[in-house]
Amino acid sequence: MKKRDFDAVVVGSGPNGLAAAITMQEAGLSVLLLECKDTIGGGLRSAELTLPGFVHDICSAIHPLAVESPFFKTLPLAAHGLRFVTPTVAAAHPFDNGTAAVLQKSIEKTACSLNGDKNAYLNLIAPLVNDWPDIALSTLGPLRLPKHPLAMARFGWNALTSAEFLARLRFQTVEARGLWAGMAAHAIQPLSKITTSAIGLVLMAMGHLNGWPVPVGGSQSIATALAAYFTSIGGKIETGVYVKNLKQLPSAHAVLLDVTPKQLLSIAGHEFSSLYKWQLQRYRYGMGVFKIDWALDGPVPFKAAECRQAGTVHLGNTLEEIASAEKITSVGIHPERPFVLLAQQSLFDTTRAPEGKHTAWAYCHVPNGSETDMTAAIENQVERFAPGFKDLILARHTMHTAQMHEYNPNYIGGDINGGKLNIRQLYTRPALRLSPYRTSAKGIYICSSSTPPGGGVHGMCGYHAARVALKDVFELQARELV
Ligand SMILES: Cc1cc2nc3c(=O)[nH]c(=O)nc-3n(C[C@H](O)[C@H](O)[C@H](O)COP(=O)(O)OP(=O)(O)OC[C@H]3O[C@@H](n4cnc5c(N)ncnc54)[C@H](O)[C@@H]3O)c2cc1C
User: Taking residues 40-58, what's their average pLDDT?
Assistant: First the structure.
C-alpha cells in the first residue's frame, strides 16, 4: 500500500467526527482529526455565555441518545471523566390550567399521569421499550434488512405515521396528546409529516430506558471524554484548521467529512460525479432555531410541581397549539407563541451555576435563515407557565440562525439537524445510494448528521461511516498484498 501521511483524516470534531475518528483509530489505523474552531466538540460545547460562574450548553443539552448509543456504550468514557446525572422527571409538559403531563422512567407512572389514556400509552410505548435492545442498531443506522424484522415492523407501523394522525388515533386526553406533540416536535417539522412519530417514539422510549440525562459540567464533557479516549489510543487532533479544499489535507487513504452536503460540495465537489453532485444539490435543509441562555437568580418558578423536577420542559400547551406553531414556522411565519424546548441543567448539576443561582437553556424553531429576535416570544411562553420568571433573569445570551451558522458551519440557515428529517431524507440522507456514507469519489466519505440516523448526539453517523471506510481501506490493503 502506498505510504500516506495518515491512514485517515477526519474533518470536523462534532460527536460524529469524534466517533468516526475513534472507530478508525481503534481498528489500528493512524487518524488525524481536524477542527476549524479553536475547541473541539461541534454541537457539544459549554461556556460561560452570560456571567462568570454560569456554565451554559451552547448547543445540545439533554442526552438520552448519548447514553443509549450502541457505539458510545462500548467506549470507556467514564474512565475519561464523563459522568451523567439523571433528572427525576425526564420531561414535563405544562398546560394553562397549572397541571402537567410527565415522561418519567417508570412507564406505569407515566401512563397513570395521562388519566384516561393510561392503557393507550402502555399499548403504544411498552412494546417499543421491550423491543429496543433488538432494534437499536437498525433504528440508529442506515436502511438495511433488520436482524429482528418483527420488532422492527412493530416500530415502523407506528413510526411511519404523522404525529397528528397517531395522536388522534391513539389518545383521547389533552394531557396525552400534548405530551406526545412535544416529543414529536423535536423532529423540527410540521406534525402532519410522516417521520415526526418516529422521533417522538424514540425519545419517549429513551425516557423509560435511561431517562434523559445531563452530563456533569456541561455537554462539553462528552466531547472532552471522547477526545481524551481518542488521543489515549494514539489519535491526533488539530484545531483552528478550516478545511476549504481537499488539497489542504495531508495524504490519507480515507477522508471522512463531518459536514453537511452544501459544505461537502464546496470542499470536494470537483471530485464527484455529475449525478452525485445533482443529488447533493437537491438536499433540503429544515427550519432553524433561535437559541437563548439565561443566568437566573433562582430556579424557574413553574406553577406545576412536576416541571420543577424536570430536566426538560416542553412549552406549547396543547397538541393543536404546537401543531399550529410548527406548521406556520415551516412556511416562513414566526409564531407569536412558539413551541419552546427548555432545559434546567443546574437543578441537577451544581457545577453549572454559583450556589443558589441557576441556568436555563431554551430554543424555539424559526424559519430557515431567520434573523428575527424571538427573545420576547420565548420569555412570554416561559412566563405563561412560570409566573415571576422574568424577575429572576440576571443576564441572557441569544443566537439567531445566522449567529448559529457563524458559530458552527454545519448549521446551514440555523438547521441543527444537518438537513430535514423528512421521509425522503430519513434513511437516504444525503443521497440515495447503496451506502449513504460513501461519496462518488474513492476514499471520500460523509459522516455527519446529514447521514443516517440523523441529528442528535449519538455518534452513530460517524460510527457507520467509519465502518464503511474501514472496509474499503482493508480491501485496498488486501488487494495490494496479493
Ligand atoms: C441549540 C441546539 C440544541 C441541541 N440540543 C440537543 C440535545 O439536547 N440533545 C441532542 O442529542 N442533540 C441536540 N442537538 C443536536 C446535536 O448537537 C447535533 O445533532 C450533533 O452535534 C451533530 O453532530 P455532528 O458531529 O454531525 O456535527 P456537529 O456537532 O455540528 O460538528 C461539526 C463540526 O465540524 C466542524 N467543521 C465544519 N466544517 C468544517 C470545515 N470545513 N473544516 C473544519 N471543521 C469543520 C464544526 O466546527 C463542528 O465542530 C442540538 C443542537 C443545537 C444547535
Answer: 98
Quick one: which H or E segment has residue 389? none
- Percentage of residues in the chain with pLDDT exceeding 90? 94
Pairing of strands 288-296, 393-399: antiparallel
Helix (H, G, I), strand (E, B) or coil at 444: strand
Please give the residue range of the domain that contains residue 477: 6-82+215-284+415-481
What is the rounded average pLDDT of the residues 327-356? 98
Check pocket membership of 12 for ligand 1, CB cut-off 6 A: yes
Cis peptide before 142 (omega within 30 of 0): no
pLDDT, tens digit (0-9, with 9 covering 90-100), for 243-268: 999 999 999 999 999 999 999 999 99
- Confidence (pTM): 0.97
Of 59, 340, 368, 451, the one to substitute when testing ligand 1's pocket (max ligand atoms within 8 A of C-beta) is: 59
Residue 133 lies in a domain: yes
pLDDT band at 374; cut points 50, 70, 90:
very high
Give the helix ranges, DSSP H, for 185-219.
196-210
Atom 6, ligand 1: residue with shortest CA distance? 60
Domain limit, last residue, from 381, 407, 433? 407
pLDDT mean over 75-99: 97
Three cell numbers at 136?
Answer: 437499536
Residue 482 has pLDDT above 80, yes or no: no
Q: Is the CB of 452 under 6 A from ligand 1?
A: no
Please tell me what DSSP assigns to residue 421: -
Query: 45: buried, middle or exposed (CB in 10 Å: 19+, 13-18, 0-12)?
Result: buried
The string of pLDDT tens digits covering residues 148-178 is 999 999 999 999 999 999 999 999 999 999 9
Q: Do 157 and 294 reside in the same domain of the chain?
A: yes
196 has pLDDT over 80: yes
Closest CA to 53 of 422, 356, 369, 403: 356
Q: Is the CB of 362 under 6 A from ligand 1?
A: no
Reading the block at residue 64, the C-alpha cell is 438520552
Please give the full DSSP string across 9-63, using - where no structure is assigned.
EEE--SHHHHHHHHHHHHTT--EEEEESSSSS-TT--EE--SSTT--EESS----
Q: Structurally, how many domains does the chain consist of?
A: 2
Nearest in space to 44 (alpha carbons), one of 211, 263, 260, 221: 221
For residue 72, give Cα distances in angstroms to 46, 217, 332, 337, 413.
Answer: 20, 18, 37, 37, 29
Instruction: Label residue 1 by pLDDT band (50, 70, 90).
Output: low
Rounded CA separation 215/219 (Å): 6
Spatial neighbors of 322 by CB under 8 A, at least 6 apart, are: 178, 181, 182, 185, 191, 316, 339
Q: Is 258 in the pocket of ligand 1 (CB under 6 A)?
A: yes
Residue 204 lies in a domain: yes
